């Protein structure tokens, strides 16, 4: 018997569903669709934690992720490093995942290029403004050791220089020497281990950026053991939006006022658009994310409609 | 032709089709042919770059405040390393030991014959015997012309990506090929990472520091510690698991692993996940603001408290879930359903983000249809 | 004695030292705790070697006996040995044997970047499609609990998008908590947090009790059967 349109929709081959999801992701990418983000209170708290630290504060950033989780975590890592540089905080980069140390180098280099465009003439010097301590194996054991004595494990930086020869390592003894810990985490070891073995025993504030899958598991630590969590791409996009609105836009407007001529203004406006579109990776990737969410919501609605129609038909057959 | 083979052929057709889309609509598909390109490398400490003085050019970049030293025929790359690797001389315990500065020599790393440049904020340049020696004390970049196979590797990566996606249609030989390749590569990857990041610095570096210092100078000066024979012995015992007759002895290593995990987890989970969470749950139920009781915050605090309590009651199986216990347990289930629903939402978000990443790779890195 | 008692003693000593080192971080417990953590790491690497050896054994056996699908085993072992050789010898590393094993430009890093990462990322990305399929076929409001789960997921999915904000932008400020993004936020911060907290307490109790049982030798399943 030929299937009607309702039966075809109800019994649709799942490969058509796969195709629709693929199109929901590809088309917004191709047409560069993205939407403004509204930062949520928790993201604002994370932002304020970094913003309210006095300039020159010691911020330990743990790059515990790999290229497989880069789509979600790289945008927030870049945003954090940019924010720290703009606030003149001193960044201590480390990694609990092997490839994290390379990602730290890439992220910091990208942030330096960006900050130099925003603040021309600004010098960011290795050893004074940032240091990369590199990867150490041992998972949560590393955090446990660093809690009491950093030099036991990190006697040299990523380039092999002894930490006694690095100016910004003066006075850094253990985890308690830092003003803030930032954990960019893709799994184990990550933010959970930082809470259990690091920030909670040391009573140092911790902010976390994690994959969306892991984020709900970190909510119980909020707010006593964790200042806030940036959950996945959405959290990264919200943070980028906040950074643009509160930091970059005023800086750009200030430069616009200083320049005061059309050529400079066009250049800055083009730069602002470029930064918003291309260097704000989180906001850019939220476009396809948004459309995919809507498609999945539509699937849930249609699936339930077909379920209720079938249920009513079955009940009707029973009563006859 | 089997169904699997037809799907594989369809995959190849899709692969060719997409590459044609890139050619027609993109800015030019990534060139699959090997080519010469400039690549940047971050310079580790204690590296020295040597080239004949007549060929070396030094340029100062005023805008970026960096010095660029260029050698059109490449540099000889050498590393400053201690002349002798070995135990320090014994000193008189009654007198402070004099500071011993190790004699440094240059050891060869490799020769580069293509054009190369060293770029850094601080550069130390010296000349000797017709050669210029360049050292970068605070880090910098080495920019070398390399013969790059990046293009063909990007094409291969794109093919593997589509091969895995082909499983969504159905199982096929090309998917199986990719799957088996993944298993082999990932097993070897973790072995290599474990060897170079754990075994060499932490085990071999403690037992044979002289040998390790030659291949991994970044480890720093380390005293020999025979205590590290313990993990070596336990590790070798673990490998006995492959033997049917003597495999029982691997239990000793397993016991060590189990003991460490149990010890670490006992304290970590007790402090942060148990006591910490109970402390977090015991907050004030009535929240006041500048204008008196904050209704919203108070409602949330009460919901939070009831939620934790009722969810815990659901997991309490020592008494039957009847009466008040039954009602509380039922309420707990509802709170847990909200938790699982929220987790599902976030899981969707996470997986879609990874899919966006892969599509970005296909359309930006491979086909150059979009700008990354 | 050798097969059961000594392993139990090892578990007890190691576990107890690590617990005590938390409360007494000074010598010798603090130092022993750190050392044991490093020993654990080293022994775990031998477990990787064991895994690799097992892989070679199984696939080698399949190839030698020409079992169905042995061609794929050749691919598996080829990928394994090529990656192993390139990584152990640091072939193509710009700084030679002294360079970092994951140095950009090395052959090992190229294998990671162009073989391992695309394969593993795509495997995970496949889940997006299956999640969508599950949303259509399995996510049904069959009873109250399923409906609550569905509504929560719906709210989170909608609230985390721009469309969610647009749908309820007309809601007055006095009722701002009813706007979809604010509702989604409240669901995450209150009912979700309470459920996650309860789960965390329950799981931690399980882990604490199991860890204690392992350390004290009450739980011995990891030792296997006595006949082994």
Question: In words, what does this structure look like?
Answer:
The complex is a heterotrimer of chains A (320), B (372) and C (228). Chain A has 320 residues and is α/β, with parallel strands linked by helices. Chain A has 2 domains: 5-31 and 282-319; 41-239, Rossmann fold (3-Layer(aba) Sandwich). Chain A is built from 11 helices and 6 strands. A 6-stranded parallel β-sheet of chain A has the order 3-2-1-4-5-6, with helices on both faces. Chain B has 8 helices and 12 strands. Helices cover 51% and strands 18% of the residues of chain B. The model of chain B is unreliable at 86-91 (pLDDT under 50). By secondary structure, chain B is of the alpha+beta class. The relative contact order of chain B is 0.10. Chain C is 71% helix and 0% strand. Chain C has helices at residues 5-23, 29-64, 70-88, 107-137, 144-159, 162-167, 180-189, 191-216. The chains are: A alpha/beta (320), B alpha+beta (372), C mainly alpha (228). Chains in contact: A-B, A-C, B-C.
What portion of the residues of chain C fall into strands of 2 or more residues? under 5%
The class by helix and strand makeup of chain A works out as alpha/beta
Biggest interface, chains and residues, is:
B-C, 131 and 136 residues
What is the oligomeric state here?
A: heterotrimer
Mean pLDDT of chain A: 87
What's the helix count of chain C? 8
Give the termini separation of chain A: 23 Å
Kindly report how far apart the N and C termini of chain C lie: 13 Å
* Shape field of chain C: extended
Low-pLDDT runs of 5+ residues of chain C are: none
Strand tally of chain A: 6
What's the Cα radius of gyration of chain C? 27 Å
Strand content of chain A: 5-15%
Compile the SSE list and pairings.
The complex is a heterotrimer of chains A (320), B (372) and C (228).
Chain A: H1 5-10, H2 14-30, H3 41-51, E1 58-64, H4 70-86, E2 90-95, H5 100-118, E3 130-135, H6 140-148, E4 180-185, H7 191-202, E5 206-210, H8 215-218, E6 228-231, H9 232-259, H10 262-279, H11 281-319
Helix pairs in contact in A: 2-11, 4-5, 4-9, 6-7, 9-10, 9-11
Chain B: H1 3-25, E1 35-42, E2 47-52, E3 57-61, E4 66-71, E5 76-82, E6 104-111, E7 116-120, E8 124-128, E9 131-135, E10 141-148, H2 150-165, H3 173-207, H4 209-215, H5 229-239, H6 250-281, E11 288-289, E12 292-293, H7 295-314, H8 323-366
Antiparallel strand pairs in B: 1-10, 2-5, 2-9, 3-4, 4-7, 5-6, 7-10, 8-9, 11-12
Helix pairs in contact in B: 2-3, 2-8, 3-4, 5-6, 7-8
Chain C: H1 5-23, H2 29-64, H3 70-88, H4 107-137, H5 144-159, H6 162-167, H7 180-189, H8 191-216
Helix pairs in contact in C: 1-2, 2-3, 5-7, 7-8
